[in-house]
Amino acid sequence: MKIRPIDIARKLNISTSTLRHYEAWGIIPPVARQSNGYRDYTEEHVAYFTCVRGMEPGFGIKLSATVLKRIQVNDLDTAIQLIIEAQTFLMQEKKIAEKTIGILDSIDFDSNKVFAKGKMSIGDVSRETGIPTSAIRHWEQIGLITPYRDDDNGYRLFDRNHVRQLLLIRTLRTSNYSLETIKRVLNELEDKNTEEAKKIARDSLCNLIKKSHEQLHGAHCLFVLCQKLGLYQ
């Protein structure tokens, strides 16, 4: 059964140009053309279009396209692995956001307990926070954090305040807050004002939870597609 582009677009509440973009990006299988150049979409194409629309909010168009290209060549194992990796990464970000909120809630600016561990190397901080050393160096370069320097060898040194800042930066960057917003929140934290930092961190956690729900829906859409294609029995 041949299906008109306009009918698919109406069903999915998108434009026909979006359908053409998906086709150009290789998200759907090749489309046959009539002698007049019109596309002959099939139910299989509709299933792919429906799937990418369901996956895109949680996984983004780039990853969704990569996954669906693997499905087209029956490489289900790789497709599933990509989905699992994305979900695992999101759960890690959620844990960091929760840890950040916990740290912000427990801050006592009049106590020295936050500095109890003393100075740490960049490797120590990376292991404790789960943040790559490359990201820490980059955030230093763009002025988000200023570590101490060892007087003898010039190595970076961090204290508990830096750890707190790094976790907050990671949470805000994951939620796509602007560089200006992050700097403002960090400055307020330096001025012993944690209220905006707490609010934004909680908002970030809510966004991550929402995205996890979107990923669950996207994974379900992929499952439905695979069933229709006979990849799942």
Q: Which features would summarize this protein structure in a list?
A:
mainly alpha; Multidrug-efflux Transporter Regulator, Chain: A, Domain 2; two-stranded antiparallel ribbon; 4 strands; MerR-type_HTH_dom; DNA-bd_dom_put_sf
Write up this protein.
One of its GO terms (molecular function) is DNA binding. This is MerR family transcriptional regulator. Pfam families: MerR (PF00376), MerR_1 (PF13411). Residues 1-46, 119-188 form the HTH merR-type domain. With 233 residues, the chain is mainly α. It folds into two domains: 5-87 and 214-229, Multidrug-efflux Transporter Regulator, Chain: A, Domain 2, CATH 1.10.1660.10; 88-210, Multidrug-efflux Transporter Regulator, Chain: A, Domain 2. The protein is 67% helix and 3% strand. The chain contains nine helices and four strands, in the order H-H-E-E-H-H-H-H-E-E-H-H-H. The strands form two sheets. A two-stranded antiparallel ribbon has the order 1-2. It has a two-stranded antiparallel ribbon with strand order 3-4.
Provide a count of the helices: 9
Strand order, sheet with most strands = 1-2
CATH level-3 fold name of the largest domain: Multidrug-efflux Transporter Regulator, Chain: A, Domain 2
Separation, N- and C-terminal Cα atoms: 24 Å
Indicate the low-confidence ranges by residue numbers.
111-116
Q: What's the structural domain tally?
A: 2
CATH class of the largest domain: Mainly Alpha
**Total beta-strand segments:** 4
Kindly provide the radius of gyration, computed on alpha-carbon positions and rounded to a whole number of angstroms. 23 Å
SSE run: HHEEHHHHEEHHH
Indicate the proportion of strand residues: under 5%
Helix content: 55-70%
The chain-level structural class is: mainly alpha
Give the CA-based shape.
elongated
Instruction: Describe the main β-sheet briefly.
Output: 2 strands, antiparallel
CATH architecture group name of the largest domain? Orthogonal Bundle
Average pLDDT, to the nearest integer? 89
